[in-house]
Design goal:
Layout lengths: L6 E8 L4 H11 L7 E7 L4 E7 L2 H4 L13 E8 L13 E5 L2 E11 L2 H10 L9 H11 L5 H9 L4 E9 L2 E6 L8 E5 L2 E5 L3 H6 L2 E5 L5 E5 L2 E5 L11 H7 L5 E2 L2 E2 H16 L5 E4 L5 H11 L7 E3 L12 H11 E3 L1 H4 L3 E6 L6 H12 L4 E6 L21 H4 L2 H8 L3 E4 L2 H7 L15 H4 L14 H7 L6
Parallel strand pairs: 16-19, 19-20, 20-21
Antiparallel strand pairs: 1-4, 1-10, 2-3, 2-4, 5-6, 6-7, 7-8, 8-12, 9-10, 9-11, 12-13, 14-15, 17-18
The structure holds adenosine monophosphate.
The site of adenosine monophosphate (AMP) has 19 residues, from helix 12.
Protein backbone atom coordinates (compact mmCIF):
# COMPACT_ATOMS: atom_id res chain seq x y z
CA UNK A 1 0.00 0.00 0.00
CA UNK A 2 1.17 3.52 -0.70
CA UNK A 3 2.42 5.31 2.35
CA UNK A 4 -0.28 7.38 3.99
CA UNK A 5 1.72 10.39 4.88
CA UNK A 6 0.83 14.07 4.85
CA UNK A 7 2.85 17.24 5.20
CA UNK A 8 1.09 20.47 5.00
CA UNK A 9 -0.01 23.94 5.88
CA UNK A 10 -3.57 24.77 6.86
CA UNK A 11 -5.54 27.98 7.07
CA UNK A 12 -9.10 29.01 7.95
CA UNK A 13 -11.06 32.23 8.17
CA UNK A 14 -14.52 32.91 9.54
CA UNK A 15 -16.88 35.66 8.54
CA UNK A 16 -15.04 37.79 6.03
CA UNK A 17 -16.39 38.80 2.64
CA UNK A 18 -12.94 38.21 1.11
CA UNK A 19 -12.58 34.77 2.69
CA UNK A 20 -11.25 32.98 -0.42
CA UNK A 21 -8.74 35.70 -1.38
CA UNK A 22 -7.44 35.96 2.18
CA UNK A 23 -7.11 32.18 2.33
CA UNK A 24 -5.11 32.24 -0.89
CA UNK A 25 -2.76 34.81 0.67
CA UNK A 26 -2.47 32.80 3.88
CA UNK A 27 -1.64 29.68 1.91
CA UNK A 28 0.92 31.62 -0.11
CA UNK A 29 2.70 32.53 3.16
CA UNK A 30 2.59 28.85 4.14
CA UNK A 31 3.87 27.65 0.78
CA UNK A 32 7.08 26.28 2.33
CA UNK A 33 4.94 23.69 4.14
CA UNK A 34 3.76 22.09 0.92
CA UNK A 35 4.22 22.77 -2.75
CA UNK A 36 2.60 19.92 -4.61
CA UNK A 37 -1.02 20.89 -4.34
CA UNK A 38 -3.30 23.49 -2.82
CA UNK A 39 -6.99 23.88 -2.29
CA UNK A 40 -9.64 26.18 -0.89
CA UNK A 41 -13.17 25.30 0.23
CA UNK A 42 -15.63 28.09 1.07
CA UNK A 43 -19.14 28.21 2.43
CA UNK A 44 -21.80 30.89 2.17
CA UNK A 45 -23.75 29.38 5.05
CA UNK A 46 -25.77 27.13 2.72
CA UNK A 47 -23.55 25.73 -0.01
CA UNK A 48 -19.92 24.73 -0.24
CA UNK A 49 -17.56 25.60 -3.08
CA UNK A 50 -14.25 23.89 -3.72
CA UNK A 51 -11.21 24.46 -5.95
CA UNK A 52 -8.22 22.13 -5.72
CA UNK A 53 -5.12 22.31 -7.86
CA UNK A 54 -1.72 20.71 -8.29
CA UNK A 55 1.18 23.12 -7.86
CA UNK A 56 1.77 26.43 -6.14
CA UNK A 57 -0.81 28.80 -4.69
CA UNK A 58 0.53 31.75 -6.69
CA UNK A 59 0.16 29.83 -9.94
CA UNK A 60 -3.37 28.73 -9.17
CA UNK A 61 -5.23 31.12 -6.90
CA UNK A 62 -4.10 34.60 -7.77
CA UNK A 63 -5.06 34.88 -11.40
CA UNK A 64 -8.01 34.17 -13.65
CA UNK A 65 -11.46 33.67 -12.32
CA UNK A 66 -10.78 30.98 -9.78
CA UNK A 67 -11.49 33.14 -6.72
CA UNK A 68 -14.86 34.13 -8.17
CA UNK A 69 -15.80 30.46 -8.03
CA UNK A 70 -15.30 30.56 -4.26
CA UNK A 71 -18.04 32.80 -2.84
CA UNK A 72 -18.99 32.87 0.83
CA UNK A 73 -17.47 34.37 3.92
CA UNK A 74 -16.16 31.19 5.54
CA UNK A 75 -13.14 29.35 4.13
CA UNK A 76 -10.45 26.81 4.84
CA UNK A 77 -7.37 26.07 2.76
CA UNK A 78 -4.57 23.58 2.49
CA UNK A 79 -1.09 23.24 1.02
CA UNK A 80 -0.06 19.71 0.31
CA UNK A 81 3.38 18.11 0.51
CA UNK A 82 3.13 14.49 -0.42
CA UNK A 83 5.54 11.61 -0.59
CA UNK A 84 6.23 9.08 -3.35
CA UNK A 85 3.47 8.32 -5.79
CA UNK A 86 0.73 10.27 -4.09
CA UNK A 87 0.88 13.46 -6.06
CA UNK A 88 -2.61 13.10 -7.48
CA UNK A 89 -5.31 15.73 -7.70
CA UNK A 90 -7.73 13.48 -5.82
CA UNK A 91 -5.41 13.65 -2.79
CA UNK A 92 -5.41 17.46 -2.76
CA UNK A 93 -7.29 18.89 0.22
CA UNK A 94 -9.49 20.26 1.77
CA UNK A 95 -11.66 17.17 1.51
CA UNK A 96 -15.39 17.53 1.47
CA UNK A 97 -18.20 15.15 2.39
CA UNK A 98 -21.96 15.55 2.31
CA UNK A 99 -23.19 14.01 5.53
CA UNK A 100 -26.87 13.37 6.10
CA UNK A 101 -27.13 16.50 8.23
CA UNK A 102 -24.93 18.85 6.16
CA UNK A 103 -21.59 19.23 4.49
CA UNK A 104 -18.21 19.12 6.14
CA UNK A 105 -14.80 20.03 4.81
CA UNK A 106 -11.46 19.13 6.40
CA UNK A 107 -7.87 20.27 5.95
CA UNK A 108 -5.20 18.35 7.82
CA UNK A 109 -1.57 19.03 8.64
CA UNK A 110 0.20 16.07 10.14
CA UNK A 111 0.11 12.35 9.89
CA UNK A 112 -2.03 9.76 11.63
CA UNK A 113 0.16 7.03 13.01
CA UNK A 114 -2.73 4.52 13.01
CA UNK A 115 -4.35 5.49 9.69
CA UNK A 116 -3.57 2.20 8.00
CA UNK A 117 -5.02 0.25 10.89
CA UNK A 118 -8.21 2.34 10.92
CA UNK A 119 -8.53 2.23 7.17
CA UNK A 120 -8.27 -1.53 7.14
CA UNK A 121 -11.09 -1.75 9.68
CA UNK A 122 -13.24 0.69 7.71
CA UNK A 123 -12.70 -1.13 4.44
CA UNK A 124 -13.57 -4.44 6.15
CA UNK A 125 -16.85 -2.81 7.14
CA UNK A 126 -17.68 -1.61 3.67
CA UNK A 127 -16.15 1.86 3.37
CA UNK A 128 -14.94 2.75 -0.09
CA UNK A 129 -11.92 5.05 -0.15
CA UNK A 130 -11.39 7.50 -3.01
CA UNK A 131 -7.88 8.64 -2.06
CA UNK A 132 -4.67 7.35 -0.49
CA UNK A 133 -4.64 10.12 2.10
CA UNK A 134 -4.94 9.47 5.84
CA UNK A 135 -7.22 12.51 6.06
CA UNK A 136 -9.94 10.58 4.27
CA UNK A 137 -9.93 8.18 7.20
CA UNK A 138 -11.02 11.09 9.41
CA UNK A 139 -13.81 11.98 6.99
CA UNK A 140 -15.00 8.35 6.78
CA UNK A 141 -14.98 7.99 10.56
CA UNK A 142 -16.97 11.21 11.03
CA UNK A 143 -19.52 9.98 8.49
CA UNK A 144 -19.88 6.71 10.39
CA UNK A 145 -20.19 8.17 13.90
CA UNK A 146 -23.52 7.43 15.56
CA UNK A 147 -23.51 10.71 17.54
CA UNK A 148 -25.98 13.32 16.39
CA UNK A 149 -24.21 16.69 16.68
CA UNK A 150 -21.31 17.30 14.31
CA UNK A 151 -19.00 18.35 17.12
CA UNK A 152 -19.76 15.11 19.01
CA UNK A 153 -19.08 13.11 15.88
CA UNK A 154 -15.71 14.85 15.59
CA UNK A 155 -14.86 14.18 19.25
CA UNK A 156 -15.84 10.55 18.73
CA UNK A 157 -13.29 10.35 15.93
CA UNK A 158 -10.56 12.16 17.87
CA UNK A 159 -10.59 9.28 20.34
CA UNK A 160 -9.88 6.85 17.50
CA UNK A 161 -7.19 8.65 15.54
CA UNK A 162 -3.60 8.90 16.77
CA UNK A 163 -0.53 10.79 15.70
CA UNK A 164 0.24 14.40 14.91
CA UNK A 165 -2.57 16.51 13.56
CA UNK A 166 -3.67 20.08 13.24
CA UNK A 167 -7.09 20.26 11.60
CA UNK A 168 -9.17 23.08 10.21
CA UNK A 169 -12.76 21.99 9.63
CA UNK A 170 -15.57 23.91 7.99
CA UNK A 171 -19.24 23.14 8.41
CA UNK A 172 -22.01 25.37 7.10
CA UNK A 173 -21.76 27.81 9.96
CA UNK A 174 -18.74 26.81 11.97
CA UNK A 175 -14.99 26.98 11.65
CA UNK A 176 -13.25 24.44 13.87
CA UNK A 177 -9.56 24.15 14.74
CA UNK A 178 -8.08 21.11 16.50
CA UNK A 179 -4.62 20.12 17.75
CA UNK A 180 -3.66 16.58 18.70
CA UNK A 181 -3.35 15.66 22.41
CA UNK A 182 0.41 16.35 22.46
CA UNK A 183 0.27 19.43 20.21
CA UNK A 184 2.82 17.84 17.88
CA UNK A 185 1.76 19.94 14.90
CA UNK A 186 1.22 23.69 15.31
CA UNK A 187 -1.99 25.71 14.91
CA UNK A 188 -2.53 29.34 15.89
CA UNK A 189 -5.53 31.65 16.26
CA UNK A 190 -5.56 35.23 15.03
CA UNK A 191 -8.02 37.97 14.29
CA UNK A 192 -8.44 40.22 11.29
CA UNK A 193 -10.80 42.96 12.49
CA UNK A 194 -13.84 40.93 13.54
CA UNK A 195 -12.91 37.76 11.63
CA UNK A 196 -11.20 34.88 13.37
CA UNK A 197 -8.34 33.27 11.49
CA UNK A 198 -6.58 29.92 12.00
CA UNK A 199 -3.20 29.00 10.53
CA UNK A 200 -0.31 26.60 10.87
CA UNK A 201 2.08 29.48 11.47
CA UNK A 202 1.97 33.15 12.39
CA UNK A 203 3.60 34.19 9.09
CA UNK A 204 0.17 33.55 7.51
CA UNK A 205 -1.30 36.24 9.79
CA UNK A 206 1.42 38.74 8.92
CA UNK A 207 0.68 38.58 5.21
CA UNK A 208 -2.97 39.60 5.69
CA UNK A 209 -2.38 41.94 8.63
CA UNK A 210 -4.15 39.70 11.15
CA UNK A 211 -3.27 39.91 14.83
CA UNK A 212 -1.94 36.85 16.63
CA UNK A 213 -4.21 35.90 19.54
CA UNK A 214 -2.82 32.64 20.86
CA UNK A 215 -1.81 29.07 20.10
CA UNK A 216 -4.52 26.43 20.09
CA UNK A 217 -3.44 24.28 23.02
CA UNK A 218 -2.53 20.64 22.78
CA UNK A 219 -5.70 18.56 22.74
CA UNK A 220 -7.89 21.63 22.34
CA UNK A 221 -10.85 22.08 19.99
CA UNK A 222 -11.74 25.65 19.03
CA UNK A 223 -15.21 26.23 17.63
CA UNK A 224 -15.81 29.56 15.93
CA UNK A 225 -19.40 30.61 15.19
CA UNK A 226 -21.28 33.87 14.84
CA UNK A 227 -21.44 33.90 18.64
CA UNK A 228 -17.66 33.92 19.00
CA UNK A 229 -15.10 31.39 20.05
CA UNK A 230 -15.62 28.35 22.23
CA UNK A 231 -12.95 25.99 23.55
CA UNK A 232 -13.41 22.30 24.38
CA UNK A 233 -10.76 19.96 25.78
CA UNK A 234 -12.05 16.43 25.44
CA UNK A 235 -8.84 14.53 26.18
CA UNK A 236 -7.30 13.64 29.53
CA UNK A 237 -4.70 16.36 30.00
CA UNK A 238 -1.13 15.52 29.04
CA UNK A 239 1.77 17.95 28.81
CA UNK A 240 2.37 19.30 25.37
CA UNK A 241 5.21 17.96 23.27
CA UNK A 242 5.45 20.07 20.13
CA UNK A 243 7.70 18.76 17.39
CA UNK A 244 11.20 20.20 17.72
CA UNK A 245 11.72 19.87 13.98
CA UNK A 246 9.22 22.70 13.40
CA UNK A 247 11.78 24.97 15.08
CA UNK A 248 14.86 23.41 13.49
CA UNK A 249 13.72 23.27 9.90
CA UNK A 250 10.10 23.16 8.95
CA UNK A 251 8.59 26.49 10.02
CA UNK A 252 9.38 29.81 8.42
CA UNK A 253 12.05 31.77 10.31
CA UNK A 254 9.74 34.79 10.67
CA UNK A 255 7.10 32.71 12.49
CA UNK A 256 6.69 32.79 16.25
CA UNK A 257 5.84 29.46 17.90
CA UNK A 258 5.00 29.35 21.59
CA UNK A 259 6.40 32.85 22.03
CA UNK A 260 9.70 31.75 20.51
CA UNK A 261 10.97 33.37 17.33
CA UNK A 262 11.98 30.55 14.99
CA UNK A 263 14.76 32.75 13.61
CA UNK A 264 16.19 33.57 17.03
CA UNK A 265 16.06 29.92 18.01
CA UNK A 266 17.94 28.87 14.88
CA UNK A 267 20.58 31.50 15.61
CA UNK A 268 20.97 30.12 19.12
CA UNK A 269 21.41 26.63 17.67
CA UNK A 270 24.34 28.00 15.65
CA UNK A 271 25.82 29.77 18.67
CA UNK A 272 25.55 26.59 20.73
CA UNK A 273 27.17 24.61 17.92
CA UNK A 274 30.09 27.04 17.97
CA UNK A 275 30.42 26.62 21.73
CA UNK A 276 30.50 22.86 21.35
CA UNK A 277 32.91 22.52 18.46
CA UNK A 278 34.71 25.47 16.89
CA UNK A 279 37.55 24.96 14.41
CA UNK A 280 39.63 27.74 12.90
CA UNK A 281 38.96 28.18 9.17
CA UNK A 282 39.09 30.97 6.57
CA UNK A 283 35.37 31.29 5.93
CA UNK A 284 32.02 30.41 7.49
CA UNK A 285 29.43 29.66 4.84
CA UNK A 286 25.79 28.60 5.26
CA UNK A 287 23.85 26.17 3.12
CA UNK A 288 21.18 28.58 1.88
CA UNK A 289 18.49 29.11 2.99
CA UNK A 290 18.06 26.50 5.69
CA UNK A 291 21.51 26.95 7.28
CA UNK A 292 21.58 30.76 7.26
CA UNK A 293 20.21 31.63 10.73
CA UNK A 294 22.42 28.97 12.39
CA UNK A 295 25.45 30.26 10.48
CA UNK A 296 24.70 33.82 11.64
CA UNK A 297 24.49 32.60 15.24
CA UNK A 298 27.72 30.65 14.82
CA UNK A 299 29.56 33.58 13.26
CA UNK A 300 28.39 35.99 15.99
CA UNK A 301 29.66 33.57 18.60
CA UNK A 302 33.12 33.12 17.07
CA UNK A 303 33.26 36.75 15.91
CA UNK A 304 33.91 35.96 12.30
CA UNK A 305 31.75 37.10 9.37
CA UNK A 306 29.79 34.69 7.24
CA UNK A 307 30.12 34.76 3.47
CA UNK A 308 27.66 33.63 0.85
CA UNK A 309 29.88 30.91 -0.60
CA UNK A 310 26.89 29.08 -2.04
CA UNK A 311 24.15 30.79 -3.97
CA UNK A 312 20.72 29.31 -4.14
CA UNK A 313 18.42 29.48 -7.11
CA UNK A 314 15.09 30.41 -5.57
CA UNK A 315 13.02 29.14 -8.46
CA UNK A 316 13.61 25.49 -7.60
CA UNK A 317 11.45 23.94 -4.88
CA UNK A 318 12.73 22.13 -1.83
CA UNK A 319 14.88 19.14 -2.73
CA UNK A 320 12.79 16.81 -0.65
CA UNK A 321 9.67 17.09 -2.74
CA UNK A 322 11.34 15.45 -5.73
CA UNK A 323 9.92 11.95 -5.90
CA UNK A 324 13.00 9.81 -6.57
CA UNK A 325 16.55 9.73 -5.25
CA UNK A 326 17.89 10.34 -8.76
CA UNK A 327 15.78 13.44 -9.28
CA UNK A 328 16.50 14.59 -5.75
CA UNK A 329 20.22 14.66 -6.52
CA UNK A 330 19.52 16.57 -9.69
CA UNK A 331 17.39 18.97 -7.66
CA UNK A 332 20.31 19.78 -5.41
CA UNK A 333 22.49 20.58 -8.43
CA UNK A 334 19.79 22.77 -9.89
CA UNK A 335 19.34 24.54 -6.63
CA UNK A 336 22.82 25.49 -5.45
CA UNK A 337 25.91 26.96 -7.07
CA UNK A 338 29.29 27.83 -5.65
CA UNK A 339 30.54 31.41 -5.52
CA UNK A 340 33.88 30.33 -7.00
CA UNK A 341 36.03 33.44 -6.54
CA UNK A 342 35.32 33.34 -2.81
CA UNK A 343 36.04 29.66 -2.28
CA UNK A 344 39.30 28.96 -4.09
CA UNK A 345 42.13 27.91 -1.79
CA UNK A 346 40.09 28.49 1.39
CA UNK A 347 39.34 26.31 4.37
CA UNK A 348 35.62 26.43 5.07
CA UNK A 349 33.12 25.85 7.84
CA UNK A 350 29.92 24.77 6.11
CA UNK A 351 26.77 25.04 8.22
CA UNK A 352 23.36 23.46 7.64
CA UNK A 353 20.37 23.00 9.91
CA UNK A 354 20.07 19.22 9.55
CA UNK A 355 21.38 16.18 7.76
CA UNK A 356 18.84 13.59 6.63
CA UNK A 357 19.92 11.36 3.75
CA UNK A 358 23.12 13.32 3.25
CA UNK A 359 22.21 14.24 -0.33
CA UNK A 360 22.62 18.00 0.13
CA UNK A 361 25.89 17.80 2.07
CA UNK A 362 27.52 15.36 -0.36
CA UNK A 363 26.61 17.47 -3.39
CA UNK A 364 27.63 20.76 -1.86
CA UNK A 365 30.93 19.53 -0.48
CA UNK A 366 31.73 18.05 -3.89
CA UNK A 367 30.95 21.39 -5.54
CA UNK A 368 33.10 23.24 -3.02
CA UNK A 369 36.03 20.91 -3.62
CA UNK A 370 35.61 21.26 -7.38
CA UNK A 371 35.69 25.04 -6.92
CA UNK A 372 39.09 24.73 -5.22
CA UNK A 373 38.20 24.71 -1.53
CA UNK A 374 41.16 23.55 0.55
CA UNK A 375 39.04 21.73 3.12
CA UNK A 376 35.43 21.69 4.27
CA UNK A 377 34.40 21.28 7.91
CA UNK A 378 30.73 20.33 8.00
CA UNK A 379 28.71 21.47 11.00
CA UNK A 380 25.08 20.54 11.50
CA UNK A 381 22.98 22.65 13.87
CA UNK A 382 20.94 19.69 15.16
CA UNK A 383 21.74 16.14 16.32
CA UNK A 384 21.99 13.17 13.94
CA UNK A 385 18.56 12.08 12.66
CA UNK A 386 18.45 8.36 13.37
CA UNK A 387 14.73 7.66 13.48
CA UNK A 388 11.88 8.32 11.05
CA UNK A 389 9.03 10.69 11.77
CA UNK A 390 5.47 9.38 11.78
CA UNK A 391 3.65 12.60 12.60
CA UNK A 392 3.82 14.66 9.45
CA UNK A 393 7.41 15.66 8.70
CA UNK A 394 8.68 13.93 5.63
CA UNK A 395 11.69 12.00 6.80
CA UNK A 396 12.48 8.82 4.93
CA UNK A 397 12.44 5.29 6.33
CA UNK A 398 15.17 4.36 8.80
CA UNK A 399 17.34 2.61 6.23
CA UNK A 400 17.63 5.85 4.22
CA UNK A 401 18.66 8.01 7.16
CA UNK A 402 22.41 8.47 6.97
CA UNK A 403 22.87 8.67 10.75
CA UNK A 404 21.03 5.42 11.29
CA UNK A 405 23.40 3.62 8.91
CA UNK A 406 26.75 5.22 9.73
CA UNK A 407 28.56 6.49 12.80
CA UNK A 408 30.13 9.96 12.93
CA UNK A 409 33.35 8.83 11.26
CA UNK A 410 31.39 6.95 8.59
CA UNK A 411 29.30 10.04 7.82
CA UNK A 412 32.38 12.22 7.66
CA UNK A 413 33.96 9.86 5.14
CA UNK A 414 30.72 9.58 3.17
CA UNK A 415 30.26 13.35 2.87
CA UNK A 416 33.99 13.88 2.21
CA UNK A 417 34.09 16.56 4.89
CA UNK A 418 37.43 17.12 6.61
CA UNK A 419 35.61 17.08 9.95
CA UNK A 420 31.95 16.63 10.83
CA UNK A 421 30.18 17.86 13.93
CA UNK A 422 26.53 17.72 15.00
CA UNK A 423 24.93 19.74 17.77
CA UNK A 424 24.33 17.61 20.86
CA UNK A 425 20.83 16.88 22.11
CA UNK A 426 21.69 18.89 25.25
CA UNK A 427 22.68 21.81 23.01
CA UNK A 428 19.29 21.60 21.31
CA UNK A 429 17.52 22.07 24.64
CA UNK A 430 19.94 24.71 25.91
CA UNK A 431 19.26 26.76 22.78
CA UNK A 432 15.58 26.55 23.64
CA UNK A 433 16.25 28.04 27.07
CA UNK A 434 16.02 24.75 28.99
CA UNK A 435 18.80 23.78 31.30
CA UNK A 436 18.61 20.25 30.01
CA UNK A 437 16.33 17.73 28.35
CA UNK A 438 13.83 16.38 30.86
CA UNK A 439 14.52 12.69 30.36
CA UNK A 440 11.33 11.44 32.03
CA UNK A 441 9.10 13.81 30.06
CA UNK A 442 10.94 15.69 27.31
CA UNK A 443 9.72 19.23 26.68
CA UNK A 444 9.46 18.57 22.94
CA UNK A 445 8.99 15.54 20.83
CA UNK A 446 12.49 14.89 19.53
CA UNK A 447 11.85 11.34 18.30
CA UNK A 448 13.90 11.90 15.10
CA UNK A 449 16.99 12.12 17.29
CA UNK A 450 16.10 9.88 20.22
CA UNK A 451 13.59 7.33 18.93
CA UNK A 452 11.25 8.26 21.83
CA UNK A 453 7.84 8.48 20.21
CA UNK A 454 5.11 10.16 22.29
CA UNK A 455 2.46 8.20 20.35
CA UNK A 456 3.45 4.70 19.42
CA UNK A 457 3.64 4.39 15.64
CA UNK A 458 1.06 1.67 15.20
CA UNK A 459 1.18 1.52 11.42
CA UNK A 460 4.95 1.30 11.50
CA UNK A 461 4.94 -1.59 14.01
CA UNK A 462 1.90 -3.17 12.45
CA UNK A 463 2.17 -6.49 14.21
CA UNK A 464 1.86 -4.84 17.64
CA UNK A 465 -1.07 -2.61 16.88
CA UNK A 466 -3.54 -4.04 19.38
CA UNK A 467 -1.25 -3.56 22.33
CA UNK A 468 -0.37 -0.06 21.14
CA UNK A 469 -4.00 0.85 20.68
CA UNK A 470 -4.62 0.31 24.37
CA UNK A 471 -1.57 2.15 25.58
CA UNK A 472 -2.12 5.25 23.45
CA UNK A 473 -3.37 7.71 26.05
CA UNK A 474 -1.53 6.28 29.02
CA UNK A 475 1.70 8.23 28.44
CA UNK A 476 3.30 9.93 31.40
CA UNK A 477 2.21 13.51 31.88
P1 LIG B 1 19.60 15.63 3.07
O1 LIG B 1 20.07 16.32 1.85
O2 LIG B 1 18.78 14.40 2.77
O3 LIG B 1 20.67 15.33 4.07
O4 LIG B 1 18.58 16.61 3.80
C1 LIG B 1 19.05 17.69 4.53
C2 LIG B 1 18.71 18.97 3.85
O5 LIG B 1 17.31 19.00 3.57
C3 LIG B 1 19.02 20.16 4.72
O6 LIG B 1 19.52 21.20 3.89
C4 LIG B 1 17.69 20.53 5.34
O7 LIG B 1 17.55 21.93 5.41
C5 LIG B 1 16.66 19.94 4.41
N1 LIG B 1 15.62 19.19 5.12
C6 LIG B 1 15.65 18.64 6.33
N2 LIG B 1 14.48 18.03 6.63
C7 LIG B 1 13.68 18.20 5.58
C8 LIG B 1 12.34 17.83 5.26
N3 LIG B 1 11.59 17.16 6.10
N4 LIG B 1 11.86 18.20 4.05
C9 LIG B 1 12.61 18.90 3.20
N5 LIG B 1 13.87 19.26 3.43
C10 LIG B 1 14.41 18.94 4.59
Amino acid sequence: MARLREECGVFGIFDNKDAAALTALGLHALQHRGQEGCGIVTSDGKNFYAERRLGLVGDNFTKGKVLEKLPGSYAIGHNRYSTTGNNLIKNVQPFFADLHDGGISIAHNGNLSNARYLRRELVKNGSIFQTTSDTETIVQLIAKSKRSKIIDKIIDVLFKIQGGYALTILTNKKLIGIRDPFGIRPLVIGKLNKSYVLASETCAFDIIGAKFIREIENGEIIIITENGLESIKPFPKVKERPCIFEYIYFSRPDSIINNISVYEYRKRLGAELAKESHIEADLIIPVPDSGVPAAIGYSEKVKKNIELGIIRNHYVGRTFIEPTQQIRSLGVKLKHNVNKSLIKGKSLILIDDSLVRGTTSVKIIKMLHEAGAKEVHLKIASPPIKYPDYYGIDTPDKDELLASKLDLKGMQIFTKAKTLQFLSIEGLYKSMGHEKRNSSYPQFTDHCFTGEYPVKPIDANDKNFEENQLSFMSSKS
